[in-house]
């Protein structure tokens, strides 16, 4: 994937990462938690958050010429920070 924008903001909120994956546009939400945290980072995206991400994607498309031929996908990246060692990164495609 190629990153197009980071922390893109509009009145409705913020998109963490906008990227291209071939012909598809990817709207990516990134959630980070410490390993000792009770909640897994992937659990932080509720139905309400997913709806907001879809609205933000629509705003991005309005301002940047509409959807690409490959369509639009919303992904989630969860990062867990252990007390020691490297971060653990999980990528879920097409979550919303």
UniProtKB/TrEMBL annotation:
Family of this protein: Belongs to the UPF0102 family.
Asked if the record carries the keyword Hydrolase, the reply is: yes
**Organism whose genome encodes this protein:** Streptomyces zagrosensis
Entry keyword set: Endonuclease, Hydrolase, Nuclease
Name of protein:
Putative endonuclease
Top-level taxon in the UniProt lineage: Bacteria
Asked if the Swiss-Prot or TrEMBL record annotates the protein with the keyword Hydrolase, the reply is yes
NCBIfam families named among the record's database cross-references: PRK12497.3-3
């Amino acid at each position: 994937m190629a990153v197009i924008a980071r922390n893109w903001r509009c009145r409705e909120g913020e998109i963490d990462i906008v990227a291209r994956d071939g012909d598809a546009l990817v709207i990516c939400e990134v959630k980070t938690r410490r390993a000792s945290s009770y909640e897994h980072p992937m659990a932080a995206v509720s139905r309400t958050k997913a709806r907001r991400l879809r609205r933000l994607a629509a705003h991005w498309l309005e301002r940047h010429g509409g959807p690409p031929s490959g369509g639009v996908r919303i992904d989630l990246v969860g990062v867990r920070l252990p007390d020691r060692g490297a971060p653990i990164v999980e990528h879920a495609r097409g979550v919303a």
